[in-house]
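Field reference: sequence -> structure
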Amino acid sequence: MDGMTVAARPGTGKAAVLVVEDEALILMAVGEALEVEGYEPILAQDAQHALSILEERPDIAVMFSDIRMPGMDGISLAQQVSREHPGLRVILASGHHPGDPSNRHFAAGFPFLAKPYPLTALMTYLAVAVSAAT
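Structure field:
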């Protein structure tokens, strides 16, 4: 990828958002909420799947990822994605207390939502991220 990120798939007008979440119910609920709000949700249940999708879909504007997942965690995923796709915006989420030492995302500088998060907060974060990606 050349570092350019297109915020919407040509012809759809919808910003593509990659959602990475290992809990299927949360993944589906977030995907449905994004679709209702006019986004194109692309769903992945783990980091490896997310990385594969990003190779196929250079039009993704934002990645919204859980932090604690089996295999590669969301922080490592976010760092790799930021290196390999510098125009893509990343938002992280976790149900673990922000003071937890394993939540290194604050030092990494990624926007963060604490679970359970209100969908209005997610939509606000996404609106900011999508406008920054364009």
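Note: Strands lie at 16-20, 40-44, 60-66, 89-94, 112-114.
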